[in-house]
Every structure is written in structure tokens, then in C-alpha cells.
Amino acid sequence: MKAKFLILGAAAFLAIATGPTAANDRYGNRPPVMVSPDLSAPWVMQLRGNKQARQRQPQVRERQPQVRYRQQPVQYGQPGQVRVMAQPTLREVRRTYRQRPPSPFRTAGIPAPVRREVHPQINPMYLPQDVAYAGKEKAGTIVIDTTQNFLYLVKPGGEARRYGVGTGKPGFEWAGTHKITQKREWPDWRPPAEMIVRERAKGRVLPAHMEGGPANPLGARALYLGSTLYRIHGTNQPWTIGGAVSSGCIRMRNEDVVDLYERVGVGTKVVVM
């Protein structure tokens, strides 16, 4: 009986001594956590302690360079020669259209010349010539177009004799209808007081009176218009014909004003527009 109690006590002692150790061994060596391959959500990756997985990597797309496609058609020149020309881009085509000159198709009429202070050389368009005339003025009338720098002497039969002229510079333009009141050959020149003051401010001294002659600014002939200070006259500066250069007078080449002088008389109607 005594031996039975000793055996039970030894078993109890062994159970008490080995109990905590067995429990520690049970939880000390944990089996590995198996994650199913299809569980790829970020929260599952966080369970594994992967720091790189917790940081969201930005998606960077590599920008491909834009290559402009240019077709290169083949053009054939001389036999045995081949020339390749590049097709212009859309930008080049638009730039070409912006730089395109105005269309040559215009309404009937003479294109207006460029009005400028000095005409270095007479344009052939300003030389005398006969042109068609469909206006309302009667034959023998002088019509001066100050915007195109032409003087027309209306002739019978729908024609006119056209001359190139120099007209008033900016600030000295005018328009109106007058008659020729006087004709003079190689006229003398008496500059108006306003012109003398104006030119003096520019550093140019004008004489109070100048005798007629080749050096006179009025040239070989002068046709006086009404009671005004304006005249149709020649010039000692023929290269200025076709420009806006005068103080209001209509200047012509000496040979042209002589021709006009012989064709018209006192009382001729002059229309300046």
C-alpha cells in the first residue's frame, strides 16, 4: 500500500515539473505561416512585414519621343537621275500660306503705287501713255488722282493721256475742282512765307525770290490753279515723280509738263481727287 502511494506521488511530481516546459515548447516553435498565392492584396503583404510592399510604388511611363512622319516621294528628273524631296510638314505649309503674296486677281483699275517721300528712279509706269477712260468728265478735262499719283488729260473716244506726277506729302493732301487761270514758261518762284518758316526750322534757308531756269523748283512750265497757291509745274528733281513729295503742288517731269502745256489752255477744268 505504501509503495502504491510512492508511485502516485512520483507521477504527480513529474507532471508538475514537466508541465510548463511542455507548454513553452508547444508555443516556442511555431509552424510557418502559409499564404495562398492568390492572396496578393496589400493588406496580406503587410502581414508579412514587407516594408517595400507597404510603400506604393508610382507607375512611371516612359515617354516615347514623337517622331514626325514625313513622306518622301520620288521625283524623276533627267534619265538616270532620281531626286528625293521631303514632304513639307503641316507647320511649314501653314507658314507658306501666311507668307503667300496677295492674289493678282483684282478689280478693274490701276494698282496704287507705294506713296513715299523719295522715288530713287522713275518707274516706267509713270511715263506718258494713252489709256482707256470710262469716267464722266468731258474731253479736255484734267483729272488728277493723288492716291495713285497719275494725271489724266481726257481725250475724245473714251481715252485719256496719262502722266505720272508727284503729289502732296502726308499732311499736305488736298482735293477740289479749279480752272487753269494762268500759264507761264520757265516761271520764277516766290516761296510762301509759311514755307520759308517751315523750312528754316529744318535748317534749310529758302530765298525770297528765284528766277526761272533749270535750277528753279518749278521747272520748265507752270499751270496755276484758280486763286490758290497750287500749280501743276515741272521739277528739277525728276526722280521724285510717283511719290508723295510736294507741299501740295502737282509736279511733273519737265518734258511731260511741256507736252501738257501745249495741249491745254487757260480755263481748262482741273479735278483733283
Write up this protein:
By secondary structure, the protein is of the alpha+beta class. It has a domain at 124-272: Beta Barrel (L,D-transpeptidase catalytic domain-like). 24% of the residues lie in helices and 20% in strands. The strands form 3 sheets. Strands 3-6-5-4-13-8-9-10-12 form a 9-stranded mixed β-sheet, covered by helices on one side. A two-stranded antiparallel sheet has the order 1-2. A hairpin with a 5-residue loop joins strand 1 (74-76) and strand 2 (82-84). It is elongated, with a radius of gyration of 52 Å. Mean pLDDT is 74; it is low at 67-86 and 96-119.
Largest sheet: 9 strands, mixed
What fold name stands as the CATH topology of the domain at 124-272? L,D-transpeptidase catalytic domain-like
The CATH class designation of the domain at 124-272 is Mainly Beta
Give the count of helical stretches.
6
Number of strands: 13
Tell me the overall shape. elongated
Structural class: alpha+beta
Strand content: 15-25%
- Gyration radius (Cα, Å) is 52 Å
List keywords for this structure.
L,D-transpeptidase catalytic domain-like; elongated; 13 strands; two-stranded antiparallel ribbon; alpha+beta; about 25% helix
